[in-house]
Amino acid sequence: MYSPKTIQYFNNQKNYGRIKNPDGIGKVGNIVCGDVMWLYIKLGKNKKGEEVIKDIKYETFGCVAAIATSGQVTELAKGKTIAEALAISKDAIISELGGLPPIKVHCSVLAVDALAEAIYDYFSKNKKPIPEDLQRQHEVISESRGIIEDKYHDWIAAEEKMHEAGRER
């Protein structure tokens, strides 16, 4: 059973969509459940001159929990410094949503991974030093992605085509 807040985030998708010319894009998926998340970030400076996530949006193809956790991670990350955003955990997302069924906890992991990948992409594009923990997380995500891409090439090609078709609308 989903919490009322999870249902609310599913029915009223906060921060859904794309950012034009994002500073970072994170894409993650789970072949077992079929969920795929794209997360887009735009950075700016706060009053202290620190880099913060000024805008963040997502596109998720998945279940109620995948969509709700995507929206919740964007709410938690918006306005945060990169370090604060990287500290967002699956447990924080689950807590904010009022819990998730145990079989849906992996959706919160996907949301955290999508955020990490968007930040990693930002660091990479801007030739900034990548924190060690983020580098390790990226390597684990990349290894899993490689296995999935090798095994499910046709599925991934179809999913990418569907996503690109959405951009053309």
UniProtKB/TrEMBL annotation:
InterPro entries: NIF_FeS_clus_asmbl_NifU_N. Gene3D superfamilies: 3.90.1010.10. GO terms for molecular function: iron ion binding; iron-sulfur cluster binding. It comes from the Bacteria. SUPFAM superfamilies: SufE/NifU (SSF82649). GO terms for biological process: iron-sulfur cluster assembly. Pfam families: NifU_N. Residues 1-128 form the NIF system FeS cluster assembly NifU N-terminal domain. This is Iron-sulfur cluster assembly scaffold protein. It comes from Candidatus Falkowbacteria bacterium RIFOXYA2_FULL_47_9.
